[in-house]
Structures are given as structure tokens and as C-alpha cells.
Amino acid sequence: MTTEWTYDGTLREMPTEAGVLRYHEAGEGTPLLLLHGSGPGVTGWRNFRGILPTFAERFRCLVLEFPGFGVSDDFGGHPMITAFGAVGTFVDALGLDSVDIIGNSMGGAVGINFATNQPAKVRRLVTIGGIGTNIFSPGPSEGIRLLQEFTEDPTRQRLVDWLHSMVYDPALVTEQLIEERWALATDPPTLESARRMYGKAAFAQMMAAMRASDAPLPWATMHKLAAPTLLTWGRDDRVSPLDMALIPMRTIPNAELHVFPNCGHWAMIEAKDAFESAVLAFLTR
Questions:
Q1: Could you tell me which of 64, 113, 227, 256 has the fewest CB atoms within 10 Å of its CB?
Q2: What is the pLDDT of residues 144-158, one digit of tens each?
Q3: Does 88 fall in a domain?
Q4: Domain assignment present for 44
Q5: For 255-276, what is the mean pLDDT?
Q6: What is the CATH number of the domain that holds 25?
Q7: What are 125's strand-pairing partners?
Q8: Residue 62: which H helix or E strand, with range?
Q9: Which domain covers residue 23, as residue numbers?
């Protein structure tokens, strides 16, 4: 019997001192934490609703909505930094001894941070693009530049241009997807939060701070990651080009790399069946 997992039927709330975290819960078994990426109108539900039925058959799926993206409360500050803290708060509040993690793009970076700092809490980790650093390709990438342009001047056409940079097959950018993303992306508090992350001034300030700091860059600490890791990537990713995978693949001690052909940044959507097969094999091995 196939269970129909709906948005309202899976939505849960968790009060915290900083505000309310919202998440979706489906299935039973080993806890599987799904962490979404960034970008206009993104939510955990939109990133992962397509693969939720498959994974909920084997796992207790927990799709966390990060603060500042229009579903959970906005905790203030840089959304990625806030997300780092939110994962620990969330896992502890649910009393979970350990979790598996699937992290898309920014969610992968958050997952690596959590797994490195709380190694006993993460059994296995799966990332979808978004980590490492450009080696051969210029940065910021095409997708990041389009994201910055939308954040600075949010027009419908700029949203469409950004969405097309996320996928290999332009047919995936439907009117329904555009309308769904546009409604949340132009919500004033959500847009203000995005500007703290991707506004050109904020982005330049972040890069300058990283250059001035004595702390190692995130990609230079991946050798500390203990959890078995599956790096998944779209071969045709124009947000996180494939050469970004080389340093994580080499430096994460127990890492595997799976590359999906004819696939952009959203491997879990554009290569859904192959993604489910590869990730289930890794998590249940």
C-alpha cells in the first residue's frame, strides 16, 4: 500500500528560544534528515517532495525548513550561519542519537559542518552538489550570478533565468514551478533574508571576511569528516560545476562520487530514479 504524503499532513512545528522551526515528517525507521538548498522561493518540501515517498518506505524522513526561507521563523543573521545552529537544535530537541543526512547544495554544506562537529550524531551523509570549491571553472558560477541579480532586482524574468540555470532540461521550468517560486521569493521578509546571503554587497563582504580570516576555508577542513559520504552531482550543473567535487572526493576519507548525466543542480529532481537507486543503495548497504 502506497501512502500519500501531503504538505499539511506531514507538517510539524518545533518551538525554540529563537523562534519556531517547521519541518515535515514521513515514514518510520532510521532517522533521515533532509536539508534543502538556498535560492528564490526554496523550501525543503519543494526540494524533496518528489523523493519523499521512496525514502519514507525505509526511513523516518525529517525535512527541516531552515530559518529565514519563509516557512520556519526568521532567526536573523546570515541564513547559512543560522542553519548551522538550527540542525543541532533540531536533532537534540527530537532526542535523536544519530541521523543519516541528505543535503542539497547549501544543505550539503550544513550537513558536512554538523557531521564534522558532531561525528557521533551522523551515521552516513549524502550531498547533492554545492560543496568544495571551483578549480577549473570561474566563480561565482553562472547560477550564483543569476541568483545575485534576482536578489538585487527581483523580476519574473530574472527568476526564470535563474531557474533555467538550475536544470539541464528546460522543460522542467514549468509555469507552475515559476509561479510557486515567485510567490515566496518576492515575499518581503523572505527577500530581505535572501539579500543578507546573496545581495551583492553582502556577498562581497562575506568573501572579503573569508580572505581576511586566519581560519581555514570550509573545503580545507573536509579531511576531518568521519562519516561515510556519498557525493552526488549533476554532470551539467551550472550552479556548482563538477570540478568543485574534486577536492571533497579526494580529501573526505570515506567518500564516493556519483555523477548523473544530462542533469543540472537538482539531481534529486532531474535524475530522480537514478538518484533514489544510488542513494538507497548507499544508505542501506
A1: 256
A2: 999 999 999 999 999
A3: yes
A4: yes
A5: 98
A6: 3.40.50.1820
A7: 101, 229
A8: strand 59-65
A9: 7-136+216-284
Tell me whether residue 197 is in a domain: no
CA distance 62 to 285: 21
Residue of 24, 36, 258, 265 with catalytic role: 265
Pairing of strands 122-128, 99-104: parallel
Is 41 inside a domain boundary?
A: yes
Mark whether 265 is an active-site residue: yes
Cβ contact 72:180 at 8 Å: no
Q: What is the pLDDT of residues 187-225, one digit of tens each?
A: 999 999 999 988 888 878 777 777 788 889 889 999 999
The four Cα atoms 144, 148, 149, 153 give a dihedral, to 10 degrees, of 150
Cell digits for 142? 553562472
Domains contained in the chain, number: 1
* Burial environment of residue 260 by CB neighbours within 10 A (0 to 12, 13 to 18, 19 or more): buried
All three cell numbers of 26, joined, read 514521513
HSE (side-chain half, CA atoms, 13 Å) at 147: 23
Integer Cα distance of 202 and 204 in angstroms: 5
Neighbours of 87 (CB within 10 A): 27
Single pTM value for the model? 0.96
